[in-house]
Amino acid sequence: MAVDSWKFPHPDTEPALEGAVELPGTRKTVLAGGFLLGLAVVLIALNLRPAITSVGPMLDEMRASLGASATWAGLLTTLPGLCFAGAGFAAPVLARRFGVGAALTAALVVLSAGLVLRVLDGPLVVLGGTLVVTAGIALANVLIPVVIKDSFPAQIGLMTGVYTAALQGGGALGSALTPPLANGLGGWRAALSSWAVIGVIAVGVWIFAARREVRVDTGNSRPGGARRSLMRSPLAWTVTIFFGLQAFVAYIAMGWLPQVLMDAGVSRTDAGLLLGLISVLAVPISLTVPAIAARQGSQTWWIVGLGSFGFAGILGLVIAPSASPLLWSVFVGIGMSVFSLALTVIALRAKTGEETATLSGMAQGFGYLLAALGPFLFGLLHEQTGSWTIPLIMVLAVIVAQTLFGALAGRRRFV
Hints:
The chain is an all-alpha fold. Helix content is 73%, strand content 2%. The chain has helices spanning 35-47, 50-53, 59-66, 70-98, 100-117, 123-151, 156-185, 188-193, 196-209, 234-263, 268-294, 300-319, 325-336, 338-348, 353-385, 389-409; strands spanning 27-31, 213-217. α1 runs antiparallel to α9 and α12 (300-319) runs antiparallel to α13 (325-336). The radius of gyration is 21 Å and the shape is globular. It starts with 26 loop residues before the first strand and ends in a 6-residue tail after the last helix.
């Protein structure tokens, strides 16, 4: 593919800066698309999940080493969702103030520093370092869709798919490789901090890639000098609820699915492998489906289709959990791959990079607040009922709502 084809806007992107009135032909500076920037996006994506998924396999060793309580462990696993929400609101402001390139550089530095910081001392330092790590992750989560929107406007689906595949692949690597790293490096502290190496590499590549900029025509803006708040946009709230509900289901699956499977007769080792399979399934789907869906006028039926697989998988766990755990897990994994379309929709429903940043921050800010409730409510229902049936029925209801809001979010409209 020629380099120039990565740089300039697709005719369907009808740009509209919101900060000021602009005349036709007004231009703005964006990061130049191309192989190097694409590589930087992939490296950033590889950093955004291992910091979280590496903790789960080592949590019992961490608690034993630190003398930490179960409450501490619960807080440690809840922090990412809460921090994703808070930093999601801050990211668009930082991007407008310092620029996307500088804001993403800061996010990567914060993430890498936090990975080292959190292993240096006791329980409070681990919590503080995790807070720093997830702040960096959250900023990058919100800003990468802006880079894709501005720098790869004709390849939004493809680049979103590549980014999501790298994101999911990094998560799978974090959970799979951390235990052997702990054995080889002498413990959980070295294993968790070792993931900072990828962060340092990503910082170097990103700084070099972000030096190249181009000027692009933004076309006509909306009339009026004031920035329009997306909080008043029904479509923005539709996208936000869709994103939040799919994350709600994903957090439950990542946190509770192994226990559900073990109670259905699956061994601990096999339950862990099935959870890893769920993450791996998202890679090929993320590489293909968003690119195809983004070229179509509507993404609705793709969202409905993936949601149907997720519904079938959870329904299987309700009706006959021990009949075919592998099949149910495969269905759940396909259903959770709707995450790639949630990110694609954020970019496609906005007309400019500025709107993408605002919509991304809104969707991920409120969305992750909603998602943080998922594991808590699921566990509470299990504790109150003594079975997995009612909690899983709750998940079925959420998937139905997710699919309905996703179907609406997938229609070709703009905030």
